[in-house]
């Protein structure tokens, strides 16, 4: 019975210690929730895998104070849409795309999350899942021993073949892959760099990275996807590469082999009671242009503060429900643009007329700006609702500010994972309206714009912990309403209970 169930071991169990799970663990800890991450691998990945970070993701890392440790990653060169060159310049200090091997991203986020107090249990494989009215029970196997971990909530960040999604009863509509790209990281080969080269027999991509390792990707036109339970062989990759380019890679040393196709699926809901999904567990898409990883990280940042606030007793179920309401449409839109890109990228000679027309459209400034913002995640806005300023729901942009004699900006105060009221008006009524939430939930930043710098497009704005604007240039009473909607009633924060 629920009333006699053992107490939970932790507030939240996150299944999967990839970038999305680790990002989520850190976000939950910023909000004060106890987190245990279960990972079936015994050691962190050493593979590059997803290696592209887009501008919105870099903005988020900036907001969490993680860019200093990340260092200065190399730029990823120009972007693309379906293999067609696309300038990704946009309104971000990190405009463009950045090359960061997944192993490095995971290591950075693991240090951050564990430094905040998250616990990572490696070698723990989820085999069973039960939820009751007040908790979730995860049955796991570790070193051949069965054990149970209990939590208030459980989140599946365990990839496209998610065990959590299967055991949690989530429908996953969509379609499987009909075409695929083979890819490999290969040492001891020298081939020309190729950027989406279309040959008579197929598509070839090659890029020589740090340490002399070359990543190759190849698709043979008209070849259907192979149903796979394991990675492709090196022989498959070299045969396809020779068919398309005429070059021999057989003398190379494969370091990593993978295949991905144009499958497209999305969970019908991101929350089922006390079980939630994020990242590839919630949506499966062709990882073209790095959007899959970035989309998953943005899921984590949206969910983390909301679940922590709910567990802390300062937010009701409506805030947790807003995770699905906001992120599911964003995921559907991204899956749509990836499907369009797959048609342009993997289609044979029959798509050349479409590519020609699309090339003309990409030359138009408005079309380029629109697609660049979509790919970079800079246009991922949430519906503001009627009567709200048009900026509400959009990501806050980076602006230099000054408080007294000290310089700051619109990103740095978000490092603690709290809300932020930026007040450039000096109106004491705004600070008075926010005072009941200035108990650790929302910081009030009264600032000015330094001479010679571009001012924000607002005079006052409430920024959510995930960096999206929740209120802009309204009245003190409308500010109080926004604070209550996103940060709970005007009362002191309590310890997480999740009841």
From TrEMBL:
It comes from the Bacteria. Its cofactor is FAD. Keywords: FAD, Flavoprotein, Monooxygenase, Oxidoreductase. One of its GO terms (molecular function) is monooxygenase activity. Residues 9-335 form the FAD-binding domain. SUPFAM superfamilies: FAD/NAD(P)-binding domain. PANTHER family: BINDING MONOOXYGENASE, PUTATIVE (JCVI)-RELATED (PTHR43004:SF19), TRK SYSTEM POTASSIUM UPTAKE PROTEIN (PTHR43004). This is FAD-dependent monooxygenase.
């Amino acid at each position: 019975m629920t009333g006699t169930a053992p107490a939970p071991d932790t507030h939240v169990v996150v299944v999967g210690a990839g970038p999305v799970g680790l990002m989520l663990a850190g976000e939950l800890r910023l909000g004060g929730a106890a987190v245990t991450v279960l990972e079936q691998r015994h050691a962190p990945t050493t593979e590059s895998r997803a290696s592209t970070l887009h501008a919105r993701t870099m903005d988020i890392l900036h907001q969490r104070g993680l860019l200093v440790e990340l260092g200065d990653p190399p730029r990823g060169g120009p972007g693309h849409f379906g293999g067609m060159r696309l300038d990704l310049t946009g309104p971000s200090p990190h405009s463009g795309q950045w090359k960061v091997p997944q192993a490095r991203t995971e290591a950075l986020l693991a240090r951050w999350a564990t430094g905040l107090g998250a616990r990572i249990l490696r070698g723990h494989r989820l085999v069973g899942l039960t939820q009751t009215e007040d908790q979730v029970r995860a049955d796991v196997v570790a070193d051949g021993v069965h054990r149970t971990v209990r939590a208030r909530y459980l989140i599946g960040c365990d990839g496209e073949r998610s065990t959590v999604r299967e055991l949690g009863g989530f429908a996953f509509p969509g379609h499987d892959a009909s075409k695929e790209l083979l890819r490999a990281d290969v040492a001891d080969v020298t081939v020309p760099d190729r950027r989406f080269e279309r040959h008579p027999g197929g598509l070839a991509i090659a890029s020589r990275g740090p340490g002399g390792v070359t990543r190759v990707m190849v698709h043979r036109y008209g070849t259907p996807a192979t149903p796979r339970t394991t990675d492709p062989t090196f022989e498959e990759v070299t045969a396809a590469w020779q068919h398309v380019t005429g070059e021999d890679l057989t003398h190379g040393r494969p370091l990593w082999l993978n295949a991905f196709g144009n499958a497209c699926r999305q969970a019908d809901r991101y929350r089922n009671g006390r079980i939630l999904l994020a990242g590839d567990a919630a949506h499966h898409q062709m990882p073209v242009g790095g959007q899959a990883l970035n989309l998953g990280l943005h899921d984590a940042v949206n969910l983390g503060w909301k679940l922590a606030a709910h567990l802390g007793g300062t937010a009701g179920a409506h805030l947790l429900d807003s995770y699905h309401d906001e992120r599911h449409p964003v995921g559907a839109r991204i899956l749509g643009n990836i499907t369009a890109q797959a048609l342009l990228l993997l289609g044979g000679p029959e798509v050349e007329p479409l590519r020609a027309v699309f090339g003309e459209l990409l030359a138009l400034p408005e079309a380029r700006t629109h697609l660049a913002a979509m790919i970079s995640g800079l246009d991922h806005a949430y519906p503001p609702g009627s009567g709200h300023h048009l900026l509400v729901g959009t990501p806050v942009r980076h602006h230099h500010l000054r408080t007294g004699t000290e310089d700051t900006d619109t990103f740095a105060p978000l490092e603690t994972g709290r809300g932020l009221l930026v007040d450039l008006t000096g109106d004491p009524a705004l600070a008075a309206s926010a005072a009941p939430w200035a108990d650790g939930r929302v910081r009030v930043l009264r600032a000015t714009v330094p001479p010679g710098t571009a001012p924000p497009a607002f005079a006052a704005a409430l920024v959510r912990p995930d960096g999206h604007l929740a209120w802009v240039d309204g009245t003190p009473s409308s500010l109080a309403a926004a604070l209550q909607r996103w940060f709970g009633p005007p009362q002191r924060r309590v310890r997480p209970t999740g009841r």
